[in-house]
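Researcher: Please predict.
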Amino acid sequence: MLTFALILYGMRAQNTIALGFLLLIGAACGPKDLINKTKYGGKTYKNTCETFKKEVQATLDANNDPATLRISEYDNSQFDPTFVEPGQFLQANDTLYFRLANDLEYGKYLQKGVAIIVRVDYNTPAHLANMESDPQGTVGELIITEKYYKANSQPFFVYKIPLGGKKLDGKQVSLYFSVVKLDSRGKIVKVYCDSRNKPFGPADPACCTSQPWARVRTGIKAALPDLPIRDEQYRYEGFEGTLDLIFPIMSTKFNRKELTDAILQYVAKYEQMGYLVQSIKIEGYASPDGRLELNQKLSQGRMEAVVKDLKEHFVKKMNREVPMEGLGRGEDWQRFDILVKTADFTEEERGEILRIAAQPIHEDDREKQLRKLPYWPKIREKVLPFCRHALVTFSFTYQPDKMYVERYNAPIPLLAPELYNVATKTFVISRFRPGVNARQNLGILNTLIDTRGNRTANLLAMRSTYHFALNDLKSAVRDIEGAAALDRNNPIYSIAALAYRTQGIQELSRDEAMQMLERYNDLITRTPNDRSLYINRAIVMDYIGWLSGAIADNSKVLSQEGRLAVAYNNRGVSLMKAMRLLEAEADFLQAISADPNLAEAHFNLALLYAYKGYPDKAAQSLERAVALQPAFRSELNSNPVFRVVRDHPRFGKFTTGG
């Protein structure tokens, strides 16, 4: 845990100054309580150990909170990238930069040779102590003299502690303060208030563990192993092919060879392709000339003639029976209307015919009016012969397997080439890839697997990639475990299940995450060349707070494949939590360069810019993230990093639904 402490040093001079912030409770400041008398800000001060203790305690109280992330309250776009607001920390340029909330009023102390010395220690959280090679130690110290303070206090005083090559990733910082007097050569000649032996503190500010980020949802992306998923083909479930048989006037006889040839040449062909006739529907019709009652009987007779022939020849030729449905439809006014619209009439003639046909009167009365038209002979020649027919609809369904989704939605003439195109049409469904319509493909797979019963390891594994892409992690785990159960000889399915669980690591306890880490350690030992294992182990490390380990694993992957967007993005998250913000920003930009459509990288940039106080940049990045993944819109109101910038005008479109 990072600890922040102010310490007052004793009279003993030492080569290495121990800076500590242990609170002196009930201890005397020594026989000589006075530190110095100064003039500052138009006032005269008598600085004693007692007054210094009170100010130190106020600073301790304001900064002793390792779990609260201090979000920038202002627009800091005009400042240097290393600028920080009170309570913020930054690792950059081998230096730890920070400012303290309610900081000491240095100006009134740093006169007449008095200096304040700050020492920075670090300590690894207890649950990670056995994992870090450098669990605790001292970073260094900063001697703040009057000259140094004046040179570094514009626009605000920022602490700058050299790191000496050390990384504080995931470690709790402790700050210790001493007040001393220096001679002209900078050597300590006096330590006030026995601050070496009885330092003030400690206080634990929010640096540089993952603890203050615990409530912040970041955009972490797990990597899938190279799942052996092959493309699958599916087809139409079935289709309807129609045969229109024309009858002579007042007759129930038709060209039986036309029906026989259709069965032998076309129906048989589609059955050989696997599309079997499941039912046949026969609808008999008559033309709208003559009395309605007679035409109804005529249409019924035409239907019955076709049914009789079908029952004889279909069973004989196809060697099986199929359900048949027959209807006598009467006069075919619908076809009459269509034929009038397409036949060779003048526009005036056509309009008058259609007007009469559309009248809501008895059919025989319509027919009487049509007979009175001077162009009735043309109607009898060009329209009525084609209304004397029987429409035979063959309903085909694919039988060899259930790899189909839906039927072709419109009937097509049995003899038309378009029907052959439908019968031979196949579709390809693949694993999820960026740019595909994930929800549409998921619907197809749901039909193939759940409705049609094609529960294969390959299809389940394929569907899991869509659930994963849509962040439905429970369904992704269910499907990939189903695939593993069906194909026990393929261990990659179990590794994928672990990857899916890793994406949802926020739902796990620390103990469960530690068990997951052990499993990744074992898998990496057995398959050290699988980069997805390192990327996903890093996610677990980041979750338990082992930021240095997470950064190291992603760095290892990037050293072998430098354009892997997910590794850049995830390392950037760990760097951000470690307060290595400039490096985190560079990683997020690298991730976007490698994959401009990685929504998580845009979202993480928005988080970083919001934390730093760059509202325009934060809004621009969030806008892109939301465009790629609309679910990120809700983060503006729920994610604590956006607490300040959400009121900025640039964010209005997210809160108003614009």
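Model: The radius of gyration is 41 Å.
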